[in-house]
Amino acid sequence: MTISQLHQMPHLILPILLLLINLPLYPSSYHEYGDALSKSILFFEAQRSGYLPTDQRISWRDHSGLGDGWMVSTDLTGGYYDAGDNIKFGFPMAFTTTMLAWSVIEFGQFMPPLELRNALVALRWATDYLLKTVSQTNRIFVQVGDPIKDHNCWERPEDMDTERTVYTVEAPNPASDVAGETAAALAASSLAFKSTDPGYAETLLRTATRVFEFADTYRGAYSDNTNIRDGVCPFYCDFDGYQDELLWGAAWLRRASQNDYYLSYIENNGKTLGADDNINEFGWDNKHAGLNVLVSKEVLEGNLYSLQSYKASSDAFMCTLIPETSSSHIEYTPGGLMYKPGGSNLQHATTISFLLLTYANYLEKSSQSINCGNIMVGPTKLRQIAKRQVDYILGDNPKGMSYMVGYSNYYPQRIHHRGSSIPSIKVLPQFVGCKDGSVYFNSSNPNPNLLVGAVVGGPQEDDTYEDDRVDFRKSEPTTYINAPLVGVLAYMISNPNPN
Q1: Contact between residue 388 and residue 335 where contact means Cβ atoms under 8 Å apart
Q2: Residue 215 region, left (φ>0) first, then alpha (ψ -120 to 50), else beta?
Q3: CA atoms of 477 and 236, how far apart (whole Å)
Q4: What is the C-alpha separation between 198 and 387, in angstroms, rounded?
Q5: In whole angstroms, what is the distance from residue 57 CA to residue 67 CA?
Q6: Dihedral sign, CA of 354, 256, 136, 50?
Q7: How many other β-carbons are positioned within 10 Å of the β-carbon of residue 27?
Q8: Catalytic residue among 416, 417, 462, 466
Q9: How far does the signal peptide extend, from start to end residue (predicted)?
Q10: Cross-strand partners of 140
Q11: Domain ranges of the chain
Q12: Does the structure show a pLDDT above 70 at 17?
């Protein structure tokens, strides 16, 4: 409708003006998804522990944690610091690994060749470490570093002088959650490496099989072990039970190996292990929604009706995300961000966006849609919801702020991250002790080292965000926020406007 046509129908002017007034005014929704993808992968280099390679691109970091594992006579160097501290928590690191691998499996085809290579490098930094944690039969090293003592300090990883306590679980003590997630991570990664490094992929799959057997034989949560509980809780305690990790690990082993044993496992153990419980959650502690989407691929492609309950749960979960459906119950901020109470809210936006895009692909390939009661929902709708979340993170929000550090011209400057907030060891070579870093923690100055690609915890339920280093729930980045975003951004490069 032209302006002249509108003037001929004055009765329409007021309603249209009211509609325009009520639309949120955000910056342009055009985004450089390729740039964001590059940065989201680059972030992992800043989180590296161990001996850094010569092609390390985050130049303000240096070697750290080189003695990890010495007290148990095992090489446990490498891996990632999961967030803004200097601890290597095995549970979220394994989940991060699974999601990086799944990103490559589902969306690697959309990545530019260089970024696909970088994603595999980031993945291998994780899998090489995870292989070390399960190098001994019926034993798993679940964590390196005393979190209480570490969190009482504010120091660079290159300077850390807190105890690098190794937390270990040995049979018959249980660690079904960490071992199950580690099995999932190694199995998924075997698929990611299958075409480029088949020998390494075989090692990963063989190890995943053995680790899953340990997880399933000695059932229970790792945080129930009294000898390690004080070190893993309340940080990455198992709050939602270990059963989902057993099904998750079996589902990934089924996909990676095509072994019918794992098909029977997820068919026969779904009810007893609570596959129908908490189906609307997905993250480092609760795998249910991801499990259901993963298993649904086999249902949609192979008509395996024995797994139909998993697909029904996936459909039900997707319907809860759509405001127009009668079963909608997820909360959105006024600006359109998925919101769940608690810290690091953007982890929900990235993991759920990943599931939306993945399930949309599965539905499209099988020419199916979802019955949400009052409406039918197809792949396009799921993709549009995911795009809205990604664009919000990148700046289409009431603050006009990118919640990815280094993307656009307006992003968080005072993130809760030790290495980023203290001058680099290459600029300030003298030792910065445990309490010496407090002056930087309490400073109102921007962080001196740019943690490129880091996605922070995110805004409050009213879309407000204070750029405050102290408020770790909002200002701290984590690897498990970024890992699923890698796949989401890869998809958006080739499909910026889902329709």
Answers
A1: no
A2: alpha
A3: 15
A4: 34
A5: 23
A6: negative
A7: 16
A8: 416
A9: 1-28
A10: 169
A11: 28-494
A12: no
Report which of 419, 341, 448, 475 is spatially closest to residue 61, judged by C-alpha positions.
419
Catalytic status, residue 476 = yes
**H helices within 218-345, ranges in order?**
226-232, 243-257, 260-268, 288-302, 308-320
Does residue 129 contact residue 78 with C-beta atoms inside 8 Å? Answer: yes
Q: What is the mean pLDDT of residues 134-145?
A: 97
How long a stretch of residues is the chain? 499
Q: What CATH class does 28-494 carry?
A: mainly alpha
Output the six-digit token pair for 75: 């090489």
Residue 232 token pair: 């893993």
Is 348 catalytic? The answer is no
Token pair of 185 as six digits: 């991570």
Round the average pLDDT of the chain to a whole number and report it.
92
User: What's the pTM?
Assistant: 0.93
Mean pLDDT is lowest, of 4-13, 376-385, 413-422, for 4-13
Q: Which two tokens stand for residue 316?
A: 């039900």
Return the bridge partners of 455, or none: 404
Taking a C-beta distance cutoff of 8 angstroms, is the pair 175, 169 a contact? yes
Q: 75, 276, 277, 467: which is the annotated catalytic residue?
A: 467
SS3 at position 283: coil
Structure tokens given for 4 = 């002249």
467 is catalytic: yes
